[in-house]
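Supplementary Methods, section 5.1.

A reviewer requested that the exact input to the structure prediction be made available. We therefore reproduce it here, unchanged from the version used in the analyses.
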Amino acid sequence: MRTTTLKELGYTLPLGIPDGDSLKRDFALRPYTMREEKDIARKRDLDPSYPATSIVTDVVASLLISLGGEDLSDKDEGERVARVLGLFFSDVVYIYMMARMEAVGKDVKFPFLCPHCRQAFSFEGDITTTEIDCVDTPGELEREVDLPVAWTLRKQQTSRLLLRATPWGSLHGQSVTAVTFKAASFQGSIVGALLAGEDNPKEEIRRLAITPMEVDTLTKRNINFLDEQVAKVNAGPSLIVQTQCPRPACNQPVRAPLGWDYDTFFG
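The structure derived from this sequence is encoded token-by-token as follows.
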């Protein structure tokens, strides 16, 4: 894995679409226009609870004109949405960031609240300097991890999981509240486990699909561990902003999630 910036990476996906032993990573966007503004406004009027993840899907799907060498300009909306749902989370967020930069410019301004003195302030920066973790081979999209505490999964114990970069389809339509988003991310990322009690002398990982109810049985210690490990396997753009409180009497470091909801990001 290597680290670069949005400016250096350009129209190249940080993860990409697996294609045998290689990754298809190029994409192109058409300009963001009033059509997108009207479409998002219409959908929000019809559904006030229209989640931010669905907005991201719709914006990216409407703007993509090519993906991994495939021309999408003549595809209907349903086909383009399907392509987006099949991408990894980090790639969709990256395309969304590129779309924002092309539409509004590289300068960003996000509202923050200092956790130390509780003063509200605005963070201003250059989106092209965002750090991006990239992979170069399909093998880097997966990793085995050993849980700190054994997890009872399907009436068997497991301490070793196989994680994969989270597919955007697992997150589309989900609330972006921290816990809900985290649970959906775990569900999409856990793709295998070494289950004790099985006839498995080579101790090979068994591929499986995790359900939301199974994610709910994770203990807090494993949740904290997986939070870090899933972030690592997802790579892509850094979604944490690091700055300092501008209040002279405070001047403490502040770390906060990047505000990528539609109003903040495209406002």
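DSSP finds nine helices and 15 strands in the chain. These observations are discussed further in the main text.
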